[in-house]
Amino acid sequence: xxxxxxxxxxxxxxxxxxxxxxxxxxxxxxxxxxxxxxxxxxxxxxxxxxxxxxxxxxxxxxxxxxxxxxxxxxxxxxxxxxxxxxxxxxxxxxxxxxxxxxxxxxxxxxxxxxxxxxxxxxxxxxxxxxxxxxxxxxxxxxxxxxxxxxxxxxxxxxxxxxxxxxxxxxxxxxxxxxxxxxxxxxxxxxxxxxxxxxxxxxxxxxxxxxxxxxxxxxxxxx
Length: 222
Fold this sequence. Notes:
Layout: H1 22-35, H2 40-49, H3 63-75, H4 87-125, H5 130-147, H6 151-154, H7 169-185, H8 192-221
């Protein structure tokens, strides 16, 4: 018996939405230990209300699915001779150890990402990524203009303005967010351009928050 691997510490199920994650299996074993192997309605109810698995559709944790998953897990348990420990306890112990290893792997992955981000911040401070940032900024602006050729005219602009040099994270955040919020303002809700801008705005906010965290981490290291 093993848990499928994941880089997410919360047991992301996006890779296979029908497969139980290690975290979900552990929560199942804990619920069975508390309510017993014949109280599947109670077990299912507890899982449905658990804040750690709210991303699941409520019907995923129906009592039949919980029973079947528990049956598969206990069937795969290695039986130890003269072992009087209940199956649910042995199952929970195995899943607990696997969950710990899963979290350790996720921490290593996030530390590697943070290290890479800190390195990029250092390059930005040295000015070694200025050209690349300008290209990426122009690319985003060009894509938005191509999606809506009249976007500039809606702002009362007919000529492409001279590119302003961005010197701080605050200026970068201001310009990107302003550009995307303008796209939301001047395009009808539900259109391709509107949805694209909305998706990009959410991604940008997440990336900027991560950048700020890494930046503060870098400053503490100096």
